[in-house]
Amino acid sequence: MSTDTAAGLARNSALVSTRELSKQYRPAGWFSRNSFAIDALVDVNFEIPRGSVTALIGESGSGKSTLARCLAMLEEPDQGEIYFDGQKITGATARDMALLRPRVQMVFQDSAGALNPRFSAAEIIAEPLRIQKWETGEKLRERACELMKEVGLSPDWADRRPLEFSGGQRQRLGIARAIALRPAFLILDESLSGLDLSTQAQILNLLLDLQAAHSLTYLVISHDIGLVGEVADFIAVMYQGKIVEHGSAERVLNNPREVYTRQLLNSVRVVETAFRAAHAGAGR
Amino acid sequence: MKYLARRFVHGFLLLIGVSLLCFVFSDLAPGGFFDEMKLNPQVSAETIAGIRAQYGIDQPFPVRYLRWVQSVVRGEWGYSFAYNSPVRNLLGTRARNTLILATVATALAWLISVPLGVWLASRAGKWGDRACLAGTSLLTSVPEIVLVLALLGFAVRTHWLPVGGMSSVGSGTVLREKAVDLLLHLVIPTTVLVLASLPILVRHVRSSVIEALKAPFIQAARAHGISQARLLFHYALPAAAKPLISLFGLSVAGLLSGGLLVEVVTGWPGLGPLLLESSMSKDIYVVVGIVMFSTLFMIFGNLLADLLLFVADPRVRAE
Description:
The complex is a heterodimer. In chain A, the strands form two sheets. A six-stranded mixed beta sheet of chain A has the order 6-7-8-3-9-10, with helices on both faces. In chain A, strands 2-1-4-5 form a four-stranded antiparallel beta sheet. Chain A has a single domain (2-278), classed as Rossmann fold. Chain A has helices at 2-13, 64-71, 94-100, 111-114, 121-131, 138-150, 167-179, 197-214, 225-229, 249-254, 259-283; strands at residues 14-25, 38-49, 53-57, 79-84, 87-88, 104-107, 185-189, 217-222, 234-239, 242-248. Helix content of chain A is 43%, strand content 23%. By secondary structure, chain B is mainly alpha-helical. Chain B is built from 14 helices and two strands. Chain B has a two-stranded antiparallel sheet. In chain B, strand 1 and strand 2 (85-86) form a beta hairpin. Chain A binds chain B through residues 28, 30, 69, 72-74, 97-98, 101-102, 104-106, 108-110, 113-118, 127-128, 131-132, 161, 163-164, 174, 177, 181, and chain B through 125, 130, 215-217, 219-227, 230, 235, 238-239, 314-315, 318.
């Protein structure tokens, strides 16, 4: 009984929470129906406090992206529940889902692929507003230009197509599109990987500015614990579909309880020391 | 513009190449149009030689080819021994009839397969999709000829549809009556041609839309709460258009030659029966003329596809 009320309380203070979330992928085909399945998520219990930056760390195939896609309502979990702002997402009607969608937005990893190559920058940013019928006609473009300014892009580039932008600029476009609907919750699925270090830092700063301006809650998904450790309030570590460690960033970084987390941290340190050694060698 | 000019030059060279090959092959084939006369004891060897000289087929290869080129320039496209008239007069109405049939069939096939393929792609793996895929496999494995015979048999038994030809005897002179008569005659050959090309088109549309649906920007649009119809027809279909446009070019290219067999079996007075008849009797200039005509369409179809690709893809346009 006491655990139930505790869970209930947690659900209210957290913006997003999941309960016993499970998802399996089965290879499609006529005959392989029940042969084997991949467990992408196994009984995931997870909470993201309002206004926080939570980092989700894990190696490729650990289920990070599946969790993100479930939270973004792009995929249905097989079992378990997801709550957003106290409202149950899983099993919600299509109409409720449509109302919730603007509040949860996602910035994707592959910035070139995530932007429709046929659309201009302004059209890409305005598309969510058009889809949700928030604005029409001239206002769409106006809003798009405002958003471009907000993410540090010149509105003069509104008519360019995605492939005419650099990687960092494209990621800014993706961010502008994601915040167009004034979401409360932003999922950044490996949004910084594939960019060079200084661009990563710039985008990270932009994200922090936007968080302050719009009181956003972030879920930052990454395989790079060194990068997101800097900005995260909380860190969750995923391994084989399970969340193996979850706590404040300080605690997880300095005092990891799990062997796997320690391995992850060590691998970063190994790379770092190797990098410093190489650097020192080059300096001499 | 430069690009277009280059394409035209290419097309022209291709036409010359194809015509030369046609001539070489028909030259290599044994026998000729007037050989059967040799079996007739009442026709003397001198008479045959005279006729051959009259038509100029006793001349060496280069001379014959150049004469043919001259007649093409004059717009005659060679001379038919069997019909005793310039080939152009023969091809005109025949080609028109083939085009009527092929255009209707191709347009119908595309109009059906695009929405069907998109629909299947949107529910890939579900039972509707699987059933349709199984249907297309079945359809691919049935030869056209069987379909034609089945439909003809059906028409004969029920008397619902006219069997063979393009118009009924005494179908009237009023335009409306003639049109209805033509449409009824179109039903069987069109159905066969559509059914024959449908499986390939549907499968292509389906697989390229499925591929397009995997693009991250489709996922992004989903996260914005896009409607299924807009997602499929505004996002996925344009993204999938490239291979489909090439395929469309091919189907335009095959307009003249795709339905020849069906024309022969249903008695449609198009190029098909003419090609068969003239190849059997070695009426070579007719054969060459039809092949040239098909080549022209091939070139046109490819050019059309390139132009459409240019229009459809902003990335190509930007370059």
